[in-house]
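Why show two proteins at once? Because comparison is the fastest way to build intuition. When a single record is shown, students tend to memorize it. When two are placed side by side, the eye starts asking what differs. So, the first record is below.
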Amino acid sequence: MVPGPVVHAAEPVPLLAFGARVAGDDARTRVVVQFDRKPDFSIHYVANPVRVVVDLPETAFGLKAESLEPRGLFEAIRYGGMGAGSSRLVLSAKGPVAVTNAEVIEEEGGKSYRLVIDAEKVDQPRFDALLGDQQWTGSVVAAKTDRPTIAPAEKGGAFVIAIDAGHGGIDTGAIGGATKTEEKHVTLAFAQELVATLSRESGIEAFLTRDKDVFLSLPQRVQIARNKGANLFISIHADTLRQKDIRGATVYTISDKASDHLAADLAQRENLSDEIAGVPLQSEPAEVADILIDLTRRETQAFSVNMARTVVSSFEGQINLINNPHRHAGFRVLQAPDVPSILLELGFMSNKDDEKLLLDPEWRKKVSGLLAVAIKRYRDQAVANGG
């Protein structure tokens, strides 16, 4: 008997959100999103600041930016992927709110469906009661991050590097001033190029924390690196500034005190990633709460600073650097107590010259090569010093 062809299960087709509108005032606001198929959804509340979180199956958002322009009770509205076949709509409120009605309405005999969400202003005690009554921690769409047992690396084994493409999914990051390109796409394109470059190097094993447009929380990024026994963690970013004339790369390390206002402001913005995605604010695990306390963490920080200086040295005279290119601040994504970590700001999407370079594949290849040189130099020093 001749076996028949192997049939593989088709990937689920994402929902399509193709239209939306927001209407209302500071007392009541309605949000409507149109889908091509009936969406399952769930609604939750998050405090500090107040957000209404709408979890959806995986959804392609074919929406015009102005269709979900915030108004009424809401000061910001964001949407995007959350990984694991799910997506999310986050409504950031100006104050305590309650959803009074949420329903899906069939249109045109099932040709499309409307998700209608009505919210009203409430007092703080009522909002607190809503928070207390819900059984939700935001973990329903989080990737599994339990740390497996890691076998000790054999002497002479691969030097493992985690390359973290900043932002992703619902968290778009900065928006380019000229092209409106989202930072999450810039960071992923560079991270992929860097991993490809490093993979050609003997004795180096590089991997991506995310390999597609999905959201990862800041603690998840740290834990992924630790789970895989990373010897080094590099987070890639391309921010924007109000001062559009500022350009060039910057390398950041963690510190409990920022080196300057620019570093402090950048860290504050980057640390809002989880808030943007509607992840509840939780206290940090004890093991990462006070990163600069004991000797082990101080040693890790020393290795991080050494890596930052090595990168700056490799870049000097080759690509544009900001003034004082090694800076430091309290970046949550750099807080692994046992993995030397840096955040590399490739340039600024707010500067037209930087933005042009960030979108240039040849420039990405050049910078990846320079970074690989720095990483190999750092690896040799770290191995010689027992790092």
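Second record. Ask yourself what differs from the first in the token line.
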Amino acid sequence: MSLKLIGVFGGTFNPIHYGHIKLAQAWKSFASLSKVLFIPSGLAPHKNIVLENKHRLEMLNLALKPYAGFLTDDREIKKYENDLQASYTIETLKRLTQEKEENQALCFLMGSDAFLKLESWHLWNELFNYCHILIVERRESPIHSDQLTPDLKKEWNKRLTQKIEDIETSAYGLIMVKQFEYTDVSSSQIRNAIHLHKNLIQLVPEVIADYININQLYR
């Protein structure tokens, strides 16, 4: 039985940019994802969030509005605002698993840089019990097995597939890597551009550039 695939895309989105959007578009098209949930972190264990939650959420909503099936999910922000606890991907995936239908499977989207650091994530090896991991790989720096630690390499060798049919017929536990043409942008690059008073139009949707300027963000 072919499962309906749901994309899960976590991050600080500080701010949302074309790199995020193009990565999600590429996987949504290739894997026929029924939807993609963009889940901004409340308090990210790995990063210092420098922007108020309300602004990150509003920019996500503005940026995703033109894209069918792209949805903002604010559960991690609400969790932080309620109990001031850090957000962990494993906890979010557990909750999403409880909420999804039996004929659905979760696919966590990430870039290759994030995957190479996966062992620093809380309970990282349990992620595979709740989702597939779909990785966008840079053409100029593909993932090589010698870059992986022994434990991560073990999971890589056991779970890697090149067939989307494997993803569609398994509830969780697989890894797939693809190279797509997408905009290689980072949020830090955007913040630096703002400090240097550079034009943001090539980096973020116009509505986001306007929002940043109107609200004098990252100044």
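One difference worth noting in the second protein: The beta strands are 4-11, 35-40, 70-72, 104-111, 132-136, 175-178.
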